[in-house]
Automatic annotation (TrEMBL):
It is found in: Membrane. Keywords: Coiled coil, Membrane, Transmembrane, Transmembrane helix. One of its GO terms (cellular component) is membrane. This is Prohibitin family protein. It is a single-pass membrane protein. The chain crosses the membrane at residues 12-31. It holds the Pfam family Band_7. InterPro entries: Band_7, Band_7/SPFH_dom_sf, Prohibitin.
Amino acid sequence: MSNTPKFPQWTKWLPIAIPVFILLFSAIYTVQAGSRKVVMRFGEAIGVSGEGVHLKIPFIDSTRTVDIKTQKVATPTTAASADLQNVQTEVSLNYRLDKDKLIPIIRNTGLDVDEKIIAPRIHETVKSVTAKFTAEKLLTERPIVKANIDRSMRESLSKYHIIVEDVQLTDFRFSREFDAAIEAKQTEVQRTLKAKNILERTKIEAEQRITQAEGEAEAIRIQAEAIRAQGGREYVNLKAIEKWDGRLPTYAGGDAVPMINIENIK
C-alpha cells in the first residue's frame, strides 16, 4: 500500500491559476471620484483615466493618482512698498489642476506645484504689486491691491495649466516704527478734527447770540419808535393796562395808582 497523499484533481491547475490571477489583478485599477490616474509606461505619461475601472498592461504600465479637487496653499511673503517700507503678508490661494492638461503638467513641471510653481509666483507677484503702492496706500486701498494680485496670479499660473479659484490676503504688517507713525498721525487727525468741531460749534453759538442780540435790539428800537411817535403817553397807558388787575381804587389821590384816561381805553 502506497503512503503517498492524494490531492484533489483541481489542485493540479494551481501553478497556472495563481500566476494568471496575479496577472489579472495587476492589470485592473480603479479611479475614485475627484481624481484622475495618469498611466505611466517606462516612466513616461501616456494617458489619463477618469473615474471607474480600467485595464493596463501588467508589469509594464503603472499609474499615478492625481487630485483634481480644489486645493489650498498659504504662503507668507515679504516685500517692499513704493516708499521702501518693509511689508509682510500671507497669500492664501485656492486652485485646481486642469484635468485636461495633466500630461503636460507632469511632463513639464511635475505634480509638486505648491513648492515649485505656486509659491515662487506668489512671492514674485506680491513684490511686483506692492512696489506700486506706498505703505499707507496698501492700507487704504487694500481691495485694489488684492484685485491686482488676484489678476496677476491667474495670468501667471494659467501658463502652467493651474486654475486659480480664489486669492485671499491677510492684513499687511509693517515695522514697529511705521505702526507708531501711523498711530501718531491718526491721533493728530482726530485731535485736529475735534478742534475743528469745537471751533465750528463756538462759531455757530456766537452767531446765534449775535442774531438773538440783534433781534432784541430791533424789538427795543421798534418799541422806542412807537413811544416817540405817541409822545410816550400811549405806551405808558398800555403798560398800565397790562399790569391792571381789573379793580378800581377805593380812594382817590396820592401817587399809588396812576390816573388813566378812560376814554383812551375805550
